[in-house]
Every structure is written in C-alpha cells, then in structure tokens.
Amino acid sequence: MTDKNQELVTPEGLSKLQEELKHLTEVRRKEVADRIRQAREFGDLSENSEYDDAKNEQGLLERRISELQRRLRNSKVVDPADAATDAVDLGTLVTLKVLGGKGGERKFRIVGSNESDPAGGKLSHASPVGKAVLKRKVGEKVKVATPRGSTEYEIINVEAAS
Questions:
Q1: What is the pTM of this model?
Q2: Engineering a disulfide at 50: which of 39, 63, 106, 113 sits with its beta carbon 3.0 to 4.6 angstroms away?
Q3: Can you tell me the mean pLDDT for 9-30?
C-alpha cells in the first residue's frame, strides 16, 4: 500500500466507519434480501418493478460495503493525543483569525478528509484551508484561495484536541 492510497483518520472517524459497515452488513443486507424475497413472490420477474428496485438497492448497498471495507483496509489512525502542539497537525485544534476585517476567530479540529464538517468545527487536512495551515506554527499567516476569493488567516493558537 502506498501513502497515496492511505486514508488518515482519527479514532473517532475509524469508529464511525466501522459502525456504518456493521450496520450495512448486519441490518441493511437482511432488509434488502427480504425485499427481494417478497418481490419474487409477486410473480413474473421480467415486469416486476419491485424486484428491479430491490436488486438496484442491493447493488448500491454492496458497492457501499466494498467502499467501506477498502477504506478501513487503507486507513491509518492518527491519535489526536499523539499530535504535537507546536504546529498544526491532524488531530489538533487550531484557532484561526481572518485578516483584513472580514471576520473574527474560528476554531477548527483538523481531521481526515472523510470526517470533515466545517459547520461542526471539523476541517479536513486536505481542504484548501487545511492544506495551508498544516505544519504551520502559531503567529504564521497563510493566504488561501477559496471559492469566494483569496482569504488570509493568522494562526492564533494550536492545542491538542480532546
């Protein structure tokens, strides 16, 4: 496995992936199999839209299960407790100040790309802002090209995320 295929996740992110996989394999597979069984009882499969829908759902479900299994195989857990707080890293909590009178300060936890939730204060290390601040230290300024235009940030604080 190369680093390119590796997915960085926090312990919390890994747990969510495992929970989703468990739910899909133990609960959803059974539900879809039951739907297919019931649809077969309606008769002629060539003109049975219930059966077609259930088979399509099964295909999507199996694709999602395969994707989750691949992601779990390729995941590398980065424990926030191990993150150094002298620079922004995966698992740290960073306080950013928007420069140029455009706004105040925002705190973000730097997480893996599939755990991202900017509204919830979780910023992907692969996002434009995440890439710009990664490995930077308190006091450094970074300029980020975003869809809304260029924005400059100053790193106010870096701490271990709890």
A1: 0.71
A2: 39
A3: 92
The CATH number for 80-160, chosen from 3.10.50.30, 3.40.1360.10, 3.40.50.720, 3.40.50.10770, is 3.10.50.30
Segment 26-52 shows an average pLDDT of 86
Task: Give SS3 for 139.
Answer: coil
Q: Is 91 exposed, middle or buried (0-12, 13-18, 19+ CB in 10 A)?
A: buried
Closest CA relative to residue 108, chosen from 83, 14, 78, 117: 117
Can you give the pLDDT at residue 39? 85
CA distance 16 to 77: 13
Q: Are strands 7-9 and 75-77 parallel, antiparallel or unpaired?
A: parallel
| Distance between CA atoms of residues 8 and 129, nearest Å | 17
CA nearest to 121, candidates 130, 142, 149: 130
| 16-24, Cβ contacts within 8 angstroms, sequence gap of 24 or more | 16/115, 17/68, 17/71, 17/72, 17/75, 17/114, 18/72, 20/68, 21/65, 21/68, 21/69, 21/72, 24/61, 24/64, 24/65, 24/68
Q: Which CATH architecture has domain 3-77?
A: Orthogonal Bundle (1.10)
